[in-house]
TrEMBL record:
Pfam annotation, one family: Aminotran_1_2
Required cofactor names: pyridoxal 5'-phosphate
Protein name per UniProt: Aminotransferase class I/II-fold pyridoxal phosphate-dependent enzyme
Domain of life: Bacteria
UniProt organism field: Hyalangium rubrum
InterPro entries reported for this sequence: Aminotransferase_I/II_large, Kynurenine-oxoglutarate_AT, PyrdxlP-dep_Trfase, PyrdxlP-dep_Trfase_major, PyrdxlP-dep_Trfase_small
Keywords tagged on the record: Aminotransferase, Pyridoxal phosphate, Transferase
Every Aminotransferase class I/classII large domain range: 26-384
Presence of keyword Ribosomal protein: no
Signal peptide segment: none
Keyword Transcription regulation part of the UniProt annotation: no
Amino acid sequence: AAERVSRFGTTVFSEFSALALKHGAVNLGQGFPDFDGPEAVKEAAQRAIRDGVNQYAMGMGAKDLRQAIAEHAARFYGQQVNPDTMVTVTSGATEAILDVILGLVDPGDEVVAFEPFYDSYDANITFVGAKARYVPLRPPDAQHATWWFDREEVRAAFGPRTRLLILNTPHNPTGKVFTREELEFLGGLCAEHDVKVLSDEVYEHIVFAPARHVRPSTVPVLADRTVTVSSMGKTFSLTGWKIGWVIAPPSLRDAVQRAHQFVTFATASPLQVATAAALRLPDSYFQELATQYLARREKLLRGLKEAGLPAHAPEGSYFILTNISHLGFPDDMAFCRHLVTQVGVAAIPPSVFYSPEHRHLGQGFARFAFCKTDGVLDEGVRRLREGL
Ligand code: PMP
Ligand code: GLN
């Protein structure tokens, strides 16, 4: 194998989903719903295939989907998006993240990101020969009602070689939703150092009041420098479709588009037709999604607490980080291995979302996903209560 991939093992998601299958465990690990999205959206995909939408789409994305992405941005964020110059459709947010890093970051540049981080960021930074500078998010404490960051630590991570800041809000795995004030602070630093921003918002519609999703590109200081990344997988409970997109000012969109044309060129045509229909669903669909996730969040939080796993309620995303440090395991990996093989429940050890230097900060937690039907959540909780 080439050096750039030789230090990669199997991703923790594949590893724990395979372990869950092998041990007949309830899978609260990898974040995918165990239910499908709207029938009308699945119907739209089938109709598109029957109607012959089966050849390459336009490289930047089917025109109608780009239009629907612009309408969605206007409806939810009051954002003016030109569908021809500001949008590229990708194969999931995963491709979008790679395209943005390929398009904006040179070898030797530095990228600032928060820990814990979604695992593909670190791999993609490696792919381009850049250097990551990580700033740890700190857990809630007496002074902080939610996960927070030390402003001086962020400031210290910025330097003359910094090209990109990666944001993820709502945040996987902490469930943190960044506030407007936090984004203004970060935007100020980016303006000072002429840094661009990749904003990963795949959980944009899974947010719990009083938290509200603030799209970073709608914060004035960030508007001209932010590439917004999102996808349809979580919002429409169809994670296997892998349709994502970027929205960015034309010059940044161009840089991303140049990378995209040689990464996948174009993405699945019939699923683009159906994604346009999905993005045009009425407001009630999006409200209902958040309401249902709130009920699942409450159910799992309650169950975890009964099983002796206290947790801070996430403000967004479909993940809960529980404290495990009082249980006497050497670390989160040992806890999650025990859980999947002996208790029959899969969770994700969050220390894999940290750099080696800060890995210890994740070792006192485990990540549980609540994008599961009631019966599955109940069975998971029952096993935790009896087996832990
Ligand atoms: N970013 C984050 C924070 C995620 O949690 C995920 C998916 N699990 C992705 C990106 C990838 O999204 P997609 O499936 O659309 O590629
Ligand atoms: N984003 C999902 C998670 O965090 C899974 C993504 C993946 O399997 N690569 O669980």
